[in-house]
From TrEMBL:
One Gene Ontology term of the molecular function aspect: (3S)-3-hydroxyacyl-CoA dehydrogenase (NAD+) activity
Protein name (Swiss-Prot/TrEMBL): Bll5333 protein
Pfam families: MaoC_dehydratas, MFE-2_hydrat-2_N
CDD domains registered for this protein in UniProt: HDE_HSD
Amino acid sequence: MGEGGAKRRMRGIAPRKDFRCGANPSPKRVCRTVLVALSHKGRGHINERRCSLRMPGGNQKMSARYEELKGLKNIGQKYAYTDREVMLYACGIGLGADPMDENELAFVNEGTFTPRPLKVVPTFASVAAWGSGPGEMNLNRVMVVDGERDITFHQPLPVAAHITADSSVLEVYDKGKDKGVVISHQTVLKNEKGEKLATLVASRFARGDGGFGGPNLTQPDPHKIPARAPDKTIDIVTRPDQALVYRLCGDRNPLHSDPEFAKKAGFPRPILHGMCTYGITCRGVLQTYADYDASAFRQHVARFSSPVYPGETVTMDLWKDGNTISFEAKVKSRGVTVIKNGKTVLG
Ligand SMILES: CCCCCCC[C@@H](O)CC(=O)SCCNC(=O)CCNC(=O)[C@H](O)C(C)(C)COP(=O)(O)OP(=O)(O)OC[C@H]1O[C@@H](n2cnc3c(N)ncnc32)[C@H](O)[C@@H]1OP(=O)(O)O
């Protein structure tokens, strides 16, 4: 028997099933849910492909798949990290590329010679409990992309910690067979005293799994970008090997490192992790409006509208209105917007 998941997590290592979208959907599990639903509700009929349960008498359509996803919850997942993970994440989002830049060194060097207290990038919260989540979603993982991320920072993250992650699915938006399904889920990170460190809301866009029925829900409107010209524009260069470094922070999805897998998913080559681009936009706000003060961040939100390829330059447009920074990001060389509806709240 190998090392157990809980033990690996305590040692700051992602559990073995660290890419959790599930390569092999488990029909057994879905059908068990249907059987339970059937035994409770009596009559009904099962739609074989998606195990959709249609109740007789009226047009109420209940989807067992919807119920299965909506019910996922995983409370009390234990993790630990050290300054090693903190610095690796900072390198993973490209900080420290200029070894003479003291502002960036503060995130990638613990100051064993020149006293320099290590700072933690706020969006490190996204990998601090990598592998946590509400449970197995049984999605076609080749077709899953990260859709949106919204992190609320309750207090600055320590440079090393034992933390607990409580995860649950918030909502499931079935966009239809041709579009896919958006699953919104939340993870709350707490320190050993039980105080909240960060609340992460993630939306995964599963392009191959829509059309199973369920309530007709509309996603909340994303943050609106001001209509005026940007107040500031900055360029952030990514390295050709950026995804190969970033994946060591936890997300080993082959979409970011294996050309054959990327082709299967419809991309000409491996794409950068959405969460790496997310961290890069956090860098952009840190350097432009926060004077590299990580403790100033209250919230950071972004929607991934198109992938970035490692090695590309990300151009970020920023708008400041009081404590709210709005942002978008483009890859000018391809003429695409890669981040939309971005918002940071500083305090
Ligand atoms: C914890 C989570 C982790 C999950 C596992 C992921 C592991 C990671 O390793 C994977 C990654 O990092 S992938 C890289 C980052 N993500 C991307 O590059 C995605 C880029 N975006 C796209 O491809 C499309 O916008 C796409 C496909 C997202 C949408 O394109 P379209 O279908 O053309 O969208 P559109 O027609 O404009 O809109 C349809 C409805 O969907 C809503 N929507 C659009 N973009 C969204 C997005 N990014 N996130 C969430 N919802 C989104 C729209 O509002 C619209 O809704 P409605 O039908 O209600 O009007």
